[in-house]
Amino acid sequence: MSWTSELWPIVALSLQVSATAVLLSTLVGVPFGAWLGLTRTWVRGPLSALVYTGMGLPPVVVGLLVYLLVSRSGPLGPLGWLFTPKAMIVAQVILALPFVTGITMSAVASVPVELFAQVRSLGASKWQTRWAIVREARLGVFLAVAAAFGRSISEVGAVLMVGGNIQNQTRVLTTAIMLETSAGRFGLALALGGWLLAFALAVNLVIVRLQGRPVS
Amino acid sequence: MSDAPLYRLEAVSKSHAGRDVLRVDRMDLRKGELTCLLGPTGAGKSTLLRILAGVETPTAGSLEYLGQSFGDQELPLNVRRRITLVFQRPLLLAGTVRDNVEFGLRLRGLGRRHRRAEAILDRLGLNGLASRAARTLSGGETQLVALARALVVEPEVLLLDEPTANLDPARVALVESVVAEVHRQRGTTVIVATHNLFQAHRVARRVILLLDGRLIEDAPTEQFFNAPRDPRTAAFVRGEMVY
Questions:
Q1: Four-point Cα dihedral B222, B225, B230, B231, nearest 10
Q2: Which of A146, A158, B83, B176 could form a disulfide with A59, with the two C-beta atoms 3.0–4.6 Å apart?
Q3: Rounded CA gap, B153 and B83, in Å?
């Protein structure tokens, strides 16, 4: 079997796992981050601290926790998720969610407070005002999603621990690079690395484009 | 026109950081009038407009709108939607000028948005800017777009906070004529906060003087300028420092 035939399943699974994790993180993290950015209650401080702490979570610690969670004797053991893409997605959601939440929160919180009053003065209800403010922060929300995807696609520790790097089942770009390098198959490792870099570059191009775009 | 006041304020006060910025014992604002709130910077004009618009609540006192008392509570949405306020330093939303002008129409679920927006932009000489990114406009253009988005929903009450502060004389005249036209043709109640005596004299039928958050004088324009009751009003009209 040529190394190119090994490459495509790995690339496809990497994209599938990371995209699913980012999608789930976005569905939860954007509304939660927007609420945190908008709320003026006392819980904002402690929850913000938790979210920022989550942004610095070591992937191997997340891998360990998810491993314990989905291992045969863990609370989610009966689901049989250990060494499957589902466990990898769970680990990546835990890693990506604080990024989506934290960056969304910062973006929403940075919208000028005066805009709330101006939007309300045009006849917006409470929910219409909130939606308008989140729309104002949409570049930041896009950045949050792009940053989370970058973190997910390039993550290795957690997916290796809970996925097991099983060929054609749980092998993704990062874990495959580790394996091929240790086996001395540098051609395939470099090809995989090229794909990983290409994805990282694509994500960063999106980020740079969004950052450089006038807020029009 | 009804004799019942549009707004009635009784013992309304507003404090920021423990300091009273507004303390009005009683004030009636009648429907269909064009009133100017005069006073120097810090007199409480903007705070009063924000309370009248329902974007701020009084710290204490009672606010009535068309006989319905809201105390120091928020004005309900159905009342707020009859009122628009153009802020002294308007902030436009991301998007085009047209998006901004149509914003209030979208909030109310009103139709023919494009045509309504075009009409008001045309009236304010902004039709060439409809597709421009709103945040690339000059200060004067921003102020006109803010006026357009407030007028397009055809409010019963139009509140203007220093609406011509960033405008050249030609555009000041344009804004004053548009506001007068809206007031005359639709019977819109207009309340303009300004520190410009000449503007108040030109546009208002009634003038209210605020100093240090207190109502000093409330009189028809001619009386206000020619025979004020309060010596502080007379001094203010003469351009003397009164505080």
A1: -150
A2: A158
A3: 9
Nearest C-alpha neighbor of A100 from the set A151, A44, A149, A145: A145
Secondary element (H or E) of residue A58:
none
Q: Is B149 on the interface with A (CB under 8 A)?
A: yes
Rounded distance between C-alpha atoms, residue B108 and residue A123, angstroms: 8
How far apart (Å, rounded) are the C-alpha atoms in residues A182 and B92?
57
Q: Which of A106, A134, A131 is nearest to A48 (CA)?
A: A106
Structure-token pair, residue B121? 């932009």
Chosen from B14, B47, B52, B55 to mutate, greatest number of chain A CBs within 10 A: B55
pLDDT of B222 > 70? The answer is yes
A129, closest residue in chain B (CA to CA):
B107
Residue B121 to residue B129: CA distance in whole angstroms: 8
Decide: residue A166, CB within 10 A, 0-12 exposed, 13-18 middle, 19+ buried: exposed
Residue A78 token pair: 């009966």
SS3 helix, strand, coil % of chain B, rounded to 5? 40, 30, 35
CA angle B201, B203, B207 (to 5 degrees): 60
Distance from chain centroid for Cα A148: 3
Residues B68-89 have pLDDT tens digits of 998 878 899 999 999 999 999 9
Residue A115 neighbours by CB distance under 10 Å: 17
pLDDT the model gives residue A209: 79
CA distance B195 to B40: 6
Residues of A near B (Cβ–Cβ under 8 Å) read 112, 114-115, 117-125, 128, 132, 135-136, 138, 214-216
Rounded distance between C-alpha atoms, residue A128 and residue A126, angstroms: 6
Rg, C-alpha atoms of chain A: 20
Does the pLDDT value for residue B193 go beyond 60?
yes
Q: How many residues does chain A have?
A: 216
